[in-house]
Amino acid sequence: MEKILFQVPAIHCMHCIHTIEMEVGEIPGVKHVEADQLEKTVLIEYEPPATQEKIIDVLRSINYPPDI
């Protein structure tokens, strides 16, 4: 199981958190998603077939690009 923490400056409200957690959580292999409004972070636990690149692609596609 891999863990990754992204800084996501676009997180502003509970709607942002819900959207991120729902969309990233649908990626096959993602086991846990936790977005934090105050810290503007997203913590993701995943395993194959999920990849860091796929997670980044999904975050970008829903307009929450991570700072990399």
Key terms:
single chain, 28% strand, 3-stranded antiparallel β-sheet, 3 strands, 32% helix, alpha+beta, globular, 68 residues
Task: List strands and helices in order, with pairings.
Blueprint (H helix, E strand, L loop, with lengths): L1 E6 L6 H12 L4 E7 L4 E6 L5 H10 L7
Antiparallel strand pairs: 1-3, 2-3
Walkthrough of the structure:
- It is a single chain.
- With 68 residues, the protein is α+β, with helices and mostly antiparallel strands.
- Helix content is 32%, strand content 28%.
- The chain contains two helices and three strands; from the N terminus they run E-H-E-E-H.
- It has helices at 14-25, 52-61; strands spanning 2-7, 30-36, 41-46.
- The protein has a three-stranded antiparallel β-sheet, with helices on one face.
- Strand 2 and strand 3 form a beta hairpin.
Total DSSP helices: 2
H and E string: EHEEH
Given helix and strand content, the structural type is alpha+beta
Cα distance, first to last residue?
A: 21 Å
The overall pLDDT average reads 97
Give the neighbour order of strands across the main sheet: 1-3-2
Radius of gyration: 11 Å
Which segments are poorly predicted (pLDDT under 50) over 5 or more consecutive residues?
Answer: none
Largest sheet at a glance?
3 strands, antiparallel
Tell me, what's the shape?
Answer: globular
Task: Report strand %.
Answer: 25-35%
Helical content (DSSP H or I, runs of 4+): 25-40%
The tally of strands reads: 3
